[in-house]
Amino acid sequence: xxxxxxxxxxxxxxxxxxxxxxxxxxxxxxxxxxxxxxxxxxxxxxxxxxxxxxxxxxxxxxxxxxxxxxxxxxxxxxxxxxxxxxxxxxxxxxxxxxxxxxxxxxxxxxxxxxxxxxxxxxxxxxxxxxxxxxxxxxxxxxxxxxxxxxxxxxxxxxxxxxxxxxxxxxxxxxxxxxxxxxxxxxxxxxxxxxx
Length: 195
What we know:
Elements: E1 2-6, H1 13-28, E2 41-47, E3 58-61, E4 63-64, E5 71-72, E6 76-82, H2 90-99, H3 109-120, H4 122-141, H5 146-169, H6 175-181, H7 186-193
Parallel strand pairs: 1-2, 2-6
Antiparallel strand pairs: 3-6, 4-5
Helix pairs in contact: 3-4, 4-5, 5-6, 6-7
């Protein structure tokens, strides 16, 4: 399963899903394997925007034979979910929990609690940092191109800085503690994150 979360609508996202699905398949299948043994891949693309502009919170994309309308399956599934459309579905309500600044929701209590932890507590920041480091190590182990890993690391560092900034603004961390976590001086942290 490949899950991607995207904020910016600045690319060809369907091709992005296709590319990442192909990479995942190539990374989990040994050369010479029988095609019938290639595992299924499900790609879930979660975005702030409606990729297809058709007014749905979720889209299941399938392959069809144009001449007959028959659905055919080759082991891949694509699911697109967005936070832009509120079509009153369960998915739309869940997406609202994920993008709003509300950390308490009666309908999705476990999800809203995990979001609160990741967004507002030192414990959550530490867990996210551990996940980032683990992902970075896995990427290196898988032999990804150095530039690509650096780009991802840079994006993760920006996300970490954003979380640390939120914790400072919520008075959960001091500027010194946040700067230490970010491996920066207090002056650099203040300049980058709080101005």
